Amino acid sequence: MTEHEKIQAELDKYEESVTKAIARFPERDHLPEKRIYTPLDIKDLDYADDISFPGVFPYTRGVQPTMYRGRYWTMRMYAGFSTAEESNKRYRYLIESGATGLSCAFDLPTQIGYDSDDPISEGEVGKVGVAIDSLADMEVLFDKIDLGKVSTSMTINAPASVLLAMYIAVAEKQGVSADQLRGTIQNDILKEYAARGTYIFPPRPSMRLITNIFEYCSKNVPKWNTISISGYHIREAGSTAAQEIAFTIADGIAYVEAAIKAGLDVDAFAGRLSFFWNAHNNVLEEVAKFRASRRIWARVMRDRFHAKKDKSMKLRFHTQTAGSMLTAQQPDNNIIRVALQTAAAVMGGTQSLHTNSRDEALALPSEDSVHIALMTQKIVAHESGLADVIDPLAGSYYVEAMTNKIEQEAMDYIKKIDDMGGAVAAIEKGYIQKEIQDSAYKWQMDVESGARVIVGVNAYQIENEEPPKNLLKVDASVGERQKAKLAQVKAKRDNEAVKKALADLHAACEDENENLMPHILAAVKTYATLGEICNVMRDVFGEYEAHISL
Amino acid sequence: MEKKIRVLVAKPGLDGHDRGAKVIARALRDAGFEVVYTGLRQTPEQIAEAALQEDVDCVAMSILSGAHPHLFPAVVNLVREKGMNDVLIIGGGVIPETDIPALKEAGVSEIFTPGTKTSDVVDYIKEHVKK
Fold this sequence. Notes:
The complex is a heterodimer. By secondary structure, chain A is an alpha/beta fold. Chain A contains 22 helices and nine strands. In chain A, strands 5-4-3-2-1-9-8-7-6 form a nine-stranded parallel β-sheet. In chain A, helix 6 links the parallel strand 3 and strand 4. In chain B, strands 2-1-3-4-5 form a five-stranded parallel β-sheet, sandwiched between helices. The longest helix of chain B has 14 residues. Chain B is globular, with a radius of gyration of 13 Å. Chains A and B meet through helix 4 and helix 18 of A and helix 1 and helix 3 of B.
């Protein structure tokens, strides 16, 4: 009898023995396919080809050779609200508390390229992030923060080029040259169409802007991560774990194809591509997801795009804990959820992490809540032991089998999307949106039927729960204050220079072979506003019309 | 046969989070309502106009961006200005408890916060819509 036959025989005996137990205790819904995993589930796994070592292809065990034994992940808390002054205070507080990177949240008008005095911005200014109208706001946002030292992530997509240009301009004023800057712009427009909603221009010019940034940064801002290809929001919109990485990697493939088509060499830009994953509730499934994503990307980059450099094949990622899994009920319970999600992200080998605060199903987080969230990372890092060995769950029959399964499911989706003509076509058809919506609806129905228990929501509720106190309230006058500031900037700047820079940008937009970054940089330096710059581009590029389906 | 209840599910403002709006829209449709979803980034004016054109019995708004104190009342006012005095207006999203009294005062009949069952929204509309 071979080793595997012996195990099979024992497994058969075991299965027989549980039949009686299952008759008495029927098993719950939403469980993994099998109740127990054995060497039989990973008998086709080839250690050298499929798992290998940290820092070695296909990077299943992590992208760096020593992972957290050398340095912990970057503890990066997403923050920003109200005005640049307020947000600057929060950033400095976070740095003093031990955050090791900044992560800027912008308000919706900024994310969609409108100034604070645009009528459409009414009621939204400073609400979900900080309002940035011009370089003047950006100067205040990073006041007394050394941009040569800190790494900054900016959640900005459609107008990413403009915010990056402002960042470069602020650094220049601090005496820091562009080649020293470290950070990330999200710059992932495809998931905006599919899941997050802050698009401006149609796909074609948007893809041009993105490849312009790839090219510009490869020469001028070489340490900058030019895109953060994001599954986070796809998951928040309701996708499954496999869908999250499948749709995101399909987006990644589209960006690489666009850049190659624009004439760039794959190894010139691929090393600066980064990813952004969600850390959801199911700890082991999430660990498997992170591992599977690294393996898929490595193979895609090697086999499909013939990348030569190791760096081009490494999937580096930021993680945020799942906002949609926070409950408004018994909000302190969210601290526990975030701790478990943190454990998953760390065992999955994330490069940086944002931990959500307990009160975020209710409002933007208060300073006290942010402190607990940041300390959750510190506790996992220093006290839990989870960061002490690399990829600690490798070799677990279940986690390896799950890693394979998620990889397979994701590859099936990627194949389907390829057959449709790629991610852009699949989004234009509404296919990706529909798949996400179906999963979101199924989740909700499972919660409502009680098949899926969410503590405090559909089980273990407290009658007449006290509403939580000390929620952060964004000062209602922020819109007016921001408008006044903007009027001042417009009065003080050289309006002739602004006009000239905008006309120059307009001409550049019309010439498809022109890289827009230098023109945008020149415009922001004249204190042309974000809205003015985006309006020039709207004028040439038009605006995206969303595909509405239910 | 009784006329079906018509509902406009609307996303006022710049917020792009429509998981909730779409789940609600689908649940209402499964409950037998006729549902129109506006899509993202609608101004209060566009929503009021759509409510009029679609001849709906209820407008259900969703906002997660914190812009509800401005946008919810703006929609109510425009809907009423257009003469739709019987149209039921409800809202949902990330809305702190302390904001709710002012929204109700402004004419939003009910506010549904995170964790609400879709069936509760269905029941509420059935009970409160004026036929």
